[in-house]
Amino acid sequence: MNLLNIPKVGDLLKLLAPRVLFTVALFCTVVLFVPAPVLSQLGLLPLRNSRRAELGAGLILTAGLLLAEGTSKMAKQWRQSAARWRVLKRLTPQEQALLRRYIEEDTGTLTLSFENGVVNGLQAKGILYRASTITDSSLEFPYNLQPWARDRLFRRPALVGAAKTSIGRKGRRAHRG
User: Which of 85, 80, 106, 92 is nearest to 170 (CA)?
Assistant: First the structure.
């Protein structure tokens, strides 16, 4: 057996992309369930009559794969969301104090020293990111909150010790849940 003729697993998985699976499922559904006169006009009636079992199996298989793909993506998003909550609930007092400034100043950007260990720690945790690489000689850079972190912190300012009555999001009271 020549190993060069075996398709790569990645190439096979690309064939199973959700849009391809959906197209195959839609085709099988149309051929199986559209009335015979319409299929006859389309020239697909002989296909349905001769390959009904294969079309049915194809529909079940592609629908199952689409369901598995959707379930997998939802589970991944849930795990990611849970991990992000855990990170925010385990912040050190120094990290809380820094993040509290974003809420109290109602901003998404603060200019901070890149030599600051707390800033670097929050960046490593994926909570902050450096918004620009341009600075003056002070070695301070603009750091933004990741959108997911901003959303969660403004909804639950108590995670960083901010008062529940703090003003957030352009002067409106932040939702407290």
Answer: 106
Q: Give the global pTM.
A: 0.62
The tokens describing 158, both together, are 């108590």
Query: 92-127: per-residue pLDDT in tens?
Result: 999 999 999 999 999 989 999 989 999 999 999 999
The Cα 74–Cα 68 span in angstroms is 10
Amino acid at site 141: F
Which tokens belong to 172? 């409106």
- Domains belonging to the chain, first-starting first, are 3-88 (no CATH), 91-173 (1.10.10.10)
DSSP string, 113-167: ETT-HHHHHHHHTTSEEE--S---TT-EEEEEE-HHHHHHHHH-GGGGT--TT-E
Q: How many CB atoms lie within 10 A of CB 127?
A: 24
What is the distance between the alpha carbons of residues 55 and 62, in angstroms, rounded to a whole number?
A: 10
Q: Please, which residues bridge with residue 145 across strands?
A: 128
Residue 110 near residue 130, CB atoms below 8 Å: no
Q: What are the structure tokens assigned to 151, written together?
A: 């959303």
